[in-house]
Design goal:
Structural class: alpha+beta
Distance between the termini: 75 Å
Number of domains: 2
Strand content: 5-15%
Largest sheet: 4 strands, mixed
Shape: elongated
Radius of gyration: 30 Å
Amino acid sequence: MGTDGETVNGVTIVQEGDADCPTKAGTKLSFTTELTCDATITTVDPAVIVASSDADKCHYTVAFAHEAGCPIAKSITDITDAISTATDDSLGWLYENEWAIGIIYVVFGPLIALFGASWFPYIVASLVAIFTIGVVCGLSLAFGWMATGLGTGLTIGVAFILGILGGCFVRRNIKVMLGLLGMIAGFFSGSLIFALIAASSGWNAVWGFWVISVVMAIIGCVAAVYVGMPLVMTSTSLVGSYLFMRSWTLFFPGNYPSEAELIDSKGGDLEIDAFFWVFISIFVVSFIGSLAFQCKYATPHKELDDEYGSSH
């Protein structure tokens, strides 16, 4: 009892005692209450209570109807729909108001671009966390795993857990931080290169996005480890400028393809307008300006200075 298909129509409570049933060895005495939903009944009339027992007199059952057996939600579907609707509404607001994410990017982007070498360990740990969260959510969007409230909630939860764990892990090893910083910068540069190709030629095959981004990520990872300080400044300026540029694409949506749109693009269905090149210009100016600032004014973090020395 409890459901009729998917509709909740009452509740069944089974209570098992400690005493042995005298008529059947190995069986405990038990009692079942079957409460059926009936919103019109607000009092209990003993005359309508149905009592019965099994043949061995080991198990007794009473059944009656009362409004107490009626659920707050009419069905299991109602409950899951309510949860999904609440999640979809909150996330729907986020998707419809991308400026909220843009505020995060516009604040942290310049900090990363200008102080990447000075705040190196903290910047890289934060970048790894943000990058991990972004990649997990981007993949989930592209593969349709965030089509429901439950899928979106699970994706965001997993993304944040992996992001935080990744940030904590890389903070322990400077070589790992350098490699991952180069990898992140390479991946973002690959995404930017693919966007430029898509805007210029209309070619936007999904495999092209992954090949270019992964190759650039590998190059960035290797270069950061071997080159050191110059790559730290270049990579943080690049990543910070990219986030700063992307913040404006979120303030003025529809003029620049997101990573999820690039991944999910199918044969020329991306629409690129003139504003795309305005955003690219913002990136170029930000990158050159922040890199010049770091080269002239940045004081490398002690961990970087210990690793590469003042000669860098």
